[in-house]
Amino acid sequence: MVCPQIKERLLPVDTIGRPGRQSAKRYIVIHESDCTLPGADALAHARYFAGLCRAGVTALSYHYVVDATQVIRLIPDKECSCHAGDGMGLHSANLRGISVLLCVNSDADPAETRKRAAGLVAHLLIEHSLGLDAVHQHYDFGGKDCPHSLRLGGAWGRFIDQCEAAYTEQSERRRRCLESFACPWYKVQICASRDHDEALKLACELREKGYTAYVVADIDYGRLLGESPS
Ligand SMILES: [Zn+2]
How far does residue 101's CA lie from ligand 1's centre (Å)? Predict the structure, then answer.
């Protein structure tokens, strides 16, 4: 499973559900929604959590909500979310976990939701340099029976197997992509100007901010833009 496309509907900032505290992440924490109603999909949950934030009465939020057709990011990974009920201590899942909520709406195929979630988990593990042992159930933090249906029978083991397969596939894809670049230099270009003084001024500003910046005359870039070299 490749990483599913991620849509973004960020929750309102500086609210009870998105207080904005940041930390390096150590866990991926899997939850399931309690709502099996038809239509209780990722978008419906995104709207619901945004409403909770605006109302300011219940601190409940997740980084990602996943259904059978899409993944929606509600909170940037580096921020905390209010999903595990374990406070904001240094090792809490709220602070150190990336929370992933699987929808269980009865009008969707749960196998598709799990497949999509496994692809997302693999992507997050790679992005945050974590291993499969970082994937936890909500149950591991406080003992709530969540993710309920994934905890039944051998479902959790099969889900972890899906995460591992997706991790292997995405890692291999990334490795092949990196190998396809023959050039050992990686440039980050932020502008191109015909005005030498303007380019020099920008380079000086960047150096004052602590970046290494050079001004390079690049005739090929001018040709690329359809200009003849002067
Ligand atoms: Zn939960």
Answer: 7
> Do 135 and 225 belong to one domain?
no
Three-class SS state of 53: helix
**Are residues 84 and 142 in contact, defined by beta-carbon separation less than 8 angstroms?**
yes
Residue 79 burial class via C-beta count within 10 angstroms: exposed 0-12, middle 13-18, buried 19 and up? buried
Confidence of residue 230 (pLDDT cuts 50, 70, 90): very low
CA of 227 from ligand 1 middle (Å) equals 58
Residues having C-beta closer than 5 Å to ion ligand 1: 31, 138, 146
Dump pLDDT digits (tens) for 111-148.
999 999 999 999 999 999 999 999 999 999 989 999 99
Instruction: Please check whether residues 157 and 229 belong to one and the same domain.
Output: no
For residue 146, the domain's CATH number is: 3.40.80.10
Q: Which domain holds residue 39?
A: 6-179
Question: What six digits make up the tokens of 221?
Answer: 């870039």
Ligand 1 centroid, distance to 193 Cα (angstroms): 52
Number of domains in the chain: 2
**pTM of the prediction?**
0.79
How confident is the model over 144-172, as pLDDT tens digits? 999 999 999 999 999 999 999 999 999 99
Expressed in angstroms and rounded, the spacing between residue 186 Cα and the centre of ligand 1 is 42
